[in-house]
Backbone:
């Protein structure tokens, strides 16, 4: 088939819409003729109809390559692309670019334009904005078909503008979208993400090219300026995000070129002008183009930079020439009709400052709201010119931070600008708070000199720093180098001359300064300040050249005074001149008023005038004006002159800190005073008075340990001090005594006070302090249990008070101290006979008698008892002595009330003290009188009420009122406690007292809550625990109560009577309930000590005295028990004879019963028998006493046994046996009494007695088989009798008892000993039986020493002896119940000399220690 026929067949298939056949035929045809154009067209068309668009596109493209000038393939492509929407817009554009020239060549311009317009419209409708912008490119001059379409498409400027708008919108949206997406990544920071996204977008952006083309093609000047602004803004933003390096440098060059171009054409676009000005980096300000600066001000009068530039250009330090007259008018800002503001109805906004004040205000406003590299530079120069150094420092620190940011943003080095900032900051730091910042300033100048070794400003700055640091040679060197570069600089020349003067070269300095006068006088008003400063310095040189008094007093001629006056006429505010004149008036003119005014003026003008400030501070201190002293000291401290910079040779100035510390100490601001004195001592460690002030400040603030160290440091300086301070050394002793007193070291404090009084006996404060310390020591000694010491201190206080004279006698603290000393005797009542009544009489007789009338009608306390000199019977003496002590206390407090009449607080305290003294008098009354409302309790109530009237906000006063009214009016008491707790809810005393009141009222729940609150507020307050113990007793828990009483005893002071009473009572109740053999001496020691203290504090309390003898009986202190019981018996007998009370008779009977046992233990057998018989007679049922049946039974058993044992030891066996028989009869066969009887019967020796002993023991064993003592006695008797049947029964009983938990360690030892004794009687196996018994003891009781000791004795095993010693050491109290003799036997068992000595020391009454010592030392 020919080609035509084939093509016709393909065409027919297409017309019949048989596209599959058409595709097959076309492909077969193209295999034969692959370059057939029409075949490709048919195949592409068929594929298109079948939806195979990509294959169709390839065939069309193949066709275009065969015949590029044919339209059919391109048209097919366009139709194919239109079907795909915006997916193939690039291919569509390529087809249009190729098809349009074909139409143009065919001279069919309509189709040429139409195909282009359709493409653009298609892209606009179906494509996105960016694709539409790409489509518009076909209409631009850059397009290859622009030449054939020029005039038929929109002007390029319009197209470029449309594209620019589209791209701007797209890029803005893209940036925001990408930032939003990436900022959600982990660890992403918004600033970093923004920088990254902008850098990425700007690198791909075509906006710069579009802007530039738009600028080139547009004919609209306004549009061109607009897009020039956008171009520079775009380039500037791209610069900011560009990385450092070539890319940033290239972008910066573009931006700077664009900015300079705008400035050249004078276009008012602020960013361009800012860049053109800010990016210049010149060494001097004068290198900027003045016209550019003035034009900037013309264009932007509303900006902050305008304010700065205008203020600087119109100032006297501006390096630029004044503008011509034609340029001045617009710069002056005088409004014209053509101004924009006038068109809007406004006013001219361009303002030109006329005065320096206006310039300062305008410049400050401008720089406060702008960040400008150039503005910072101008403002710093102007502020330094005005002397605004502090503001300059703050500004330059901000400027350096800003220029560092700008360097990072723009890539500019800003080296010269940074140097300028360094110079401005360094210069300001030289003068600001000089010399605090000199080191920093020097570092800044050094940085500048590293880059420019000839910088005059840096050289001058370093020279000034060296001058301040007193390194004059270096200062002269730098100033001379600066002078060589600028020889006409009079300021540098005068400064160099002044450095020589400071170095001591007064003559040379004077000549050089005189050379500066004429040039300065010629310069006129511009240099008047420097002229005045130079004249002052010449005056100083003259002052130091001739130091005679006559020369310095000279007021006329060539003298210092004349130069100083001239200096003030030229420079009225020169502070050093006023300081010099102040010294002249103070030391030579003797005009204190003028000198103070000069010093004040000098300090007002400059805080650096240290001499003037010191003189002024001393003057104010002499007047006692501490507020002004503080102001002066703070002004000097704030100036920075006091502390030299690190590495400086200049000495610091300590007196401002010391003066400030003294001022703050007088204001009682102790913490600030401490800081001030510490600062003074850091500058001058050898300052004696600062150490004293520091110690006083520490002491006043409660830091006593630190105060001690400070005072001791001061005392070490007393001998080395350069100045004479001998008159002040007593104060350190006084301060140290105060500190020791606060620390509770009263003995040392008293010694120091006495040492001070030896040299300053007239110091009333020291006298009072000594008396108070002695009383405090006495009261503390009572709390510690040192009763003898407390009494001696009270006596010494009263004796010392009799030696006082003068105003001390009329002070509140004097009489309060004496009263407190008298109260010591009413606390330690066992020593009332030592009360120095004669000294008290002298003190009270020599004082105002009217004071004793206070409440005298209520309490009936006068001077009668104290002043009485009669003799009293021995039995009345204790009561009289106690009454005298109490009355003396009350009278002294009344004197304190009289003296404190003018001081409301002191009088309130005085009434408070009197109230407690009255209540103390009530408490010391006999028990029968205390139950009633006495005159003392009424006086106490009145006293406390008066104290509350004077000071109602004192919680302690209300608490005291609650205590004294608790028995007479519980409702008032409750109100008082509630008020006290309202004022101070954290008071454990008030809570405890409220709990006690509730307990007395029967409200146990409230009492428990109150005691609990007291414990939570202060866990160491003993009486709260005591109250909880009472509650435990009420709940029937004596064990818990005993634990609480024990804890209260452990944490209480020795002066606490209730804790000792209830603790010892609860412990004795416990002792009575447990087997005596399970107790040890250690458990009896603490309650015995408590009772001994109780006896010292309150010896007339017979009940607890009697209780103490029961404890002494158990600790084998027979002699003390006898002494106490004899005294108690005598008192009770006297009381019974006086009252014939059955209660007294019962107490007397019990006392005699216990005294009989004490006599027996002490070996007084006749007295024991006598007392026992008397006790038995008094305790009989016929006797009229109030003994209970149980008391009577125990008393009679004790009497019979005591009499029986006493008679036995007195060898009256028959009478002894009768007593024991009576005891057994009345006690219903008491087992212990039976054992005693058996022992006595066996000791009597007759066979009948011994038989009876066996009988009674068998009888008690039958009744009480677990009675250890009876079994042991029977076993010993059986051993002696060699009664094997009995021994067998005893062994069986003892084997059972040795495993019993009720058997004590001592009894276990006795059982083991008896069993070993029985084992020795075995036939043939004695050794084995003994060893078996020993081993059994060890196995059953490895924690007891008797088994190990027996093993050591039988086998001679030293290891067993050591083991016995170890377990014995662990078994003593408090971990066990072993006695001293048990431990002594363990020590003796080792047979070593050292252990034998310990055994003898532990139990000297036991022979084991002495025997072991004899054996151990036998070979010595």
Residues:
């Amino acid at each position: 088939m020919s080609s035509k026929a084939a093509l016709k067949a393909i065409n027919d298939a297409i017309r019949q819409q048989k596209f599959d056949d058409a595709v097959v035929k076309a492909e077969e045809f193209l295999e034969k003729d692959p370059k057939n154009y029409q075949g490709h067209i048919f195949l592409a068309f068929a594929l298109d109809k079948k939806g195979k668009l990509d294959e169709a596109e390839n065939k069309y493209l193949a066709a275009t390559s065969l015949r590029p000038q044919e339209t059919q393939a391109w048209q097919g492509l366009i139709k194919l692309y239109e079907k795909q929407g915006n997916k193939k817009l690039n291919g569509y554009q390529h087809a249009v670019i190729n098809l349009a020239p074909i139409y143009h060549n065919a001279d069919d311009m309509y189709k040429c334009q139409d195909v282009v317009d359709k493409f653009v419209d298609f892209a606009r409708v179906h494509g996105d904005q960016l694709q539409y912008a790409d489509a518009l490119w076909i209409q631009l001059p850059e397009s290859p078909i622009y030449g054939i379409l020029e005039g038929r498409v929109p002007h390029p400027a319009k197209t470029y503008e449309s594209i620019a708008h589209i791209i701007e919108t797209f890029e803005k949206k893209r940036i925001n979208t990408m930032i939003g997406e990436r900022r959600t990544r982990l660890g992403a920071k918004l600033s970093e993400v923004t920088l990254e996204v902008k850098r990425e977008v700007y690198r791909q952006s075509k906006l710069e090219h579009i802007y530039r083309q738009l600028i080139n093609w547009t004919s609209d000047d306004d549009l061109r300026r607009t897009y020039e602004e956008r171009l520079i803004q775009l380039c500037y933003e791209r610069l900011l995000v560009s990385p450092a390096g070539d890319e940033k440098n290239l972008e910066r060059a573009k931006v700077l070129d664009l900015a300079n171009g705008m400035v050249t054409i004078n276009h008012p676009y602020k960013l361009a002008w800012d860049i053109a000005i800010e990016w210049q980096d010149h060494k001097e300000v004068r290198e900027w183009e003045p016209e550019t600066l003035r034009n900037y001000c013309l264009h932007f009068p509303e900006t902050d930079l305008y304010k700065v530039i205008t203020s600087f250009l119109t100032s006297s330090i501006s390096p630029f020439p004044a503008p011509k007259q034609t340029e001045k008018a617009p710069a002056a800002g005088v409004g014209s009709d053509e101004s924009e503001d006038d068109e809007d109805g406004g006013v001219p906004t361009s303002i030109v400052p006329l005065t320096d004040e206006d310039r300062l205000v305008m410049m400050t406003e401008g720089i406060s709201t702008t960040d400008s590299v150039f503005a910072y530079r101008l403002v710093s120069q102007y502020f330094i010119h005005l002397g605004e150094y502090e503001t300059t420092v703050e500004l330059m620190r901000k400027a350096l931070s800003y220029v560092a940011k700008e360097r990072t943003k723009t890539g500019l080095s800003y080296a010269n600008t940074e140097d300028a900032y360094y110079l401005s900051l360094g210069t300001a730091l030289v003068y600001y708070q000089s010399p605090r910042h000199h080191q920093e300033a020097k570092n800044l100048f050094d940085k500048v000199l590293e880059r420019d070794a000839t910088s005059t400003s840096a050289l001058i700055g370093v020279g000034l720093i060296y001058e301040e640091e007193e390194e004059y040679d270096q200062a002269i060197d730098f100033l001379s180098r600066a002078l060589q570069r600028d020889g006409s600089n009079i300021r540098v020349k005068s400064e160099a001359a002044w450095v020589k003067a400071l170095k001591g070269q007064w003559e040379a300095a004077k000549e050089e300064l005189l050379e500066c006068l004429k040039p300065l006088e010629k310069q006129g008003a511009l240099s008047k300040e420097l002229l005045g400063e130079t004249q002052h310095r010449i005056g100083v040189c003259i002052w130091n050249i001739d130091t005679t008094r006559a020369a310095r007093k000279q007021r006329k001629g060539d003298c210092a005074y004349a130069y100083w006056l001239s200096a003030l006429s030229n420079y009225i505010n020169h502070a050093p001149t006023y300081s010099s004149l102040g010294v002249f008036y103070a030391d030579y003119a003797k005009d204190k008023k003028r000198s103070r005014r000069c010093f004040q003026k000098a300090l007002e003008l400059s805080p650096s005038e240290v001499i003037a400030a010191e003189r002024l501070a001393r003057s104010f201190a002499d007047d006692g004006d501490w507020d002004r002293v503080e102001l002066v000291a703070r002004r000097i401290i704030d100036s920075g002159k006091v502390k030299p910079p690190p590495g400086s040779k200049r000495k610091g100035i300590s007196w401002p800190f010391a003066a400030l510390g003294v001022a703050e100490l007088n204001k009682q601001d102790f913490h600030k005073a401490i800081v001030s004195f510490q600062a003074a001592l850091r500058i001058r460690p050898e300052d004696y008075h600062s150490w004293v002030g520091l110690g006083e400040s520490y002491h006043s603030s409660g830091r006593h340990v630190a105060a001690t160290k400070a005072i001791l440091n001061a005392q070490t300086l007393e001998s080395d001090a350069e100045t004479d301070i001998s008159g002040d050394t007593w104060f350190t002793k006084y301060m140290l005594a105060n500190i020791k007193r606060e620390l509770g070291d009263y003995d040392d404090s008293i010694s120091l006070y006495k040492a001070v009084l030896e040299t300053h006996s007239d110091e009333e404060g020291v006298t009072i302090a000594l008396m108070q310390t002695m009383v405090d020591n006495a009261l503390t000694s009572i709390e510690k249990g040192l009763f003898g010491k407390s009494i001696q201190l009270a006596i010494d206080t009263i004796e010392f008070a009799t030696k006082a004279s003068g105003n001390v006698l009329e002070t509140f603290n004097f009489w309060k101290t004496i009263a407190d000393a008298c109260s010591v005797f009413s606390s330690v009542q066992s020593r009332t006979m030592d009360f120095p009544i004669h000294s008290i009489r002298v003190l009270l007789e020599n004082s105002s008698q009217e004071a004793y009338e206070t409440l005298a009608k209520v309490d009936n306390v006068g001077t009668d008892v104290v002043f009485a000199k009669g003799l009293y019977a021995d039995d009345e003496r204790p009561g009289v002595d106690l009454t005298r002590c109490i009355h003396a206390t009350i009278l002294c407090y009344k004197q304190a009330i009289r003296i404190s009449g003018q001081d409301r607080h002191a009088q309130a305290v005085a009434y408070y003290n009197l109230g407690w003294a009255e209540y103390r008098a009530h408490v010391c009354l006999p028990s029968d009188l205390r139950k009633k409302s006495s005159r003392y309790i009424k006086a106490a109530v009145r006293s406390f009420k008066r104290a509350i009237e004077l000071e109602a906000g004192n919680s302690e006063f209300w608490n005291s009122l609650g205590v004294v009214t608790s028995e007479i009016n519980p409702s008032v008491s409750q109100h008082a406690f509630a008020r006290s707790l309202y004022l101070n809810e954290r008071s454990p005393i008030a809570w405890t007292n409220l709990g006690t009141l509730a307990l007395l009222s029967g409200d146990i729940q409230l009492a428990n809550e109150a005691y609990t609150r007291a414990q939570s507020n202060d866990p160491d307050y003993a009486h709260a625990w005591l109250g909880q113990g009472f509650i435990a007793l009420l709940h029937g828990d004596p064990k818990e109560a005993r634990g609480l009483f024990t804890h209260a005893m452990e944490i209480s002071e020795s002066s606490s009577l209730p804790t000792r009473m209830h603790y010892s009572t609860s412990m004795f109740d416990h002792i009575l309930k447990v087997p005596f053999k399970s107790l040890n001496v250690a458990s009896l020691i603490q309650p015995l000590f408590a009772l001994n203290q109780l006896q010292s504090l309150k010896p007339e309390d017979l009940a607890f005295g009697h209780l103490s003898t029961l404890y002494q009986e158990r600790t084998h202190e027979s002699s003390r028990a006898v002494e106490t019981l004899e005294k108690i018996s005598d008192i009770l007998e006297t009381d019974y004879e006086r009252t014939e009370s059955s209660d007294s008779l019962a107490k007397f009977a019990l006392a005699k019963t216990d005294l009989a046992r004490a006599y027996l233990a002490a070996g007084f057998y006749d007295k024991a028998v006598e007392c026992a018989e008397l006790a038995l007679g008094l305790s009989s049922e016929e006797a009229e006493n109030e003994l209970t049946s149980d008391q009577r039974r125990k008393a009679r058993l004790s009497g019979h046994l005591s009499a029986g044992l006493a008679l036995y030891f007195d060898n009256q066996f028959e009478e002894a046996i009768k007593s024991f028989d009576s005891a057994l009869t009345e006690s219903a066969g008491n087992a212990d009494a039976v054992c005693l009887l058996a022992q006595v019967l066996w000791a009597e020796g007759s066979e009948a007695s011994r038989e009876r002993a066996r009988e009674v023991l068998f009888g008690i064993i039958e009744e009480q088989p677990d009675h250890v003592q009876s079994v042991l006695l029977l076993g010993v008797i059986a051993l002696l009798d060699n009664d094997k049947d009995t021994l067998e029964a005893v062994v069986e009983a003892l084997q059972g008892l040795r495993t019993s938990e009720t058997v004590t360690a001592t009894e276990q030892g006795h059982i083991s000993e008896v069993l070993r004794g029985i084992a020795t009687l075995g036939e043939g196996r004695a050794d084995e039986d003994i060893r078996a018994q020993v081993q059994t003891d060890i196995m059953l009781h490895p924690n007891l020493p008797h088994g190990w000791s027996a093993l050591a004795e039988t086998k001679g095993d030293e290891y067993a002896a050591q083991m016995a010693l170890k377990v014995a050491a662990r078994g003593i109290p408090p971990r066990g119940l072993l006695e001293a003799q048990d431990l002594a036997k363990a020590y003796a068992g080792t047979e070593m000399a050292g252990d034998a000595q310990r055994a003898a020391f532990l139990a000297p009454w036991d022979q084991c220690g002495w025997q072991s010592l004899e054996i151990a030392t036998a070979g010595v």
Notes: The first helix runs from residue 3 to 15. The radius of gyration is 58 Å. Confidence is low (pLDDT under 50) at residues 326-348.
